[in-house]
């Protein structure tokens, strides 16, 4: 349950970061938030009780980081398509 709450909070932070627009700041914020969450998951994996739990947390960290990078790329693509002017978000 705690993991679900953390992941929901991260998703909300990523969505909020994506709403800030105009330059590369939004994409950087999304990527930074994902990297921070991935680092937290990796730290949790270091303290996992079993190897299986550690592996699952490492895989989750990789997925979070990859999703953040993809979302940042999408934000950059949207900014580029809109000419950098996406203030209507």
Q: In summary, what is this structure?
A:
The protein has helices at residues 2-19, 25-46, 51-81.
Would you kindly provide a written description of the structure presented here, covering whatever features stand out?
The chain has about 90 residues and is mainly α. The protein has a domain of about 50 residues. Helices cover about 80% and strands about 0% of the residues. Helix 1 runs antiparallel to helix 2. The N and C termini lie far apart (about 30 Å). The relative contact order is 0.17.
What's the overall geometry?
elongated
List low-pLDDT spans: none
Ends: how far apart?
32 Å
The residue fraction in helices comes out at over 70%
Q: How much is the radius of gyration in Å?
A: 15 Å
Largest sheet: none
β-strand amount: under 5%
Number of strands: 0
Structural class: mainly alpha
Mean pLDDT over the residues: 81
User: Topology as H/E string?
Assistant: HHH
How many DSSP H or I helices?
3
Provide key terms for this protein.
single chain, 89 residues, mainly alpha, 80% helix, 0% strand, elongated
Write the topology of this structure.
Elements: H1 2-19, H2 25-46, H3 51-81
């Amino acid at each position: 349950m705690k993991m679900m709450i953390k992941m929901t909070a991260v998703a909300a932070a990523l969505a909020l970061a994506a709403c800030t627009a105009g330059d590369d700041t939004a994409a950087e914020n999304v990527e930074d938030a994902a990297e921070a969450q991935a680092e937290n998951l990796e730290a949790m994996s270091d303290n996992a009780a079993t190897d299986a739990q550690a592996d699952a947390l490492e895989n989750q960290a990789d997925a979070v980081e990859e999703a953040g990078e993809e979302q940042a790329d999408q934000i950059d693509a949207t900014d580029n398509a809109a000419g950098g002017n996406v203030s209507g978000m």
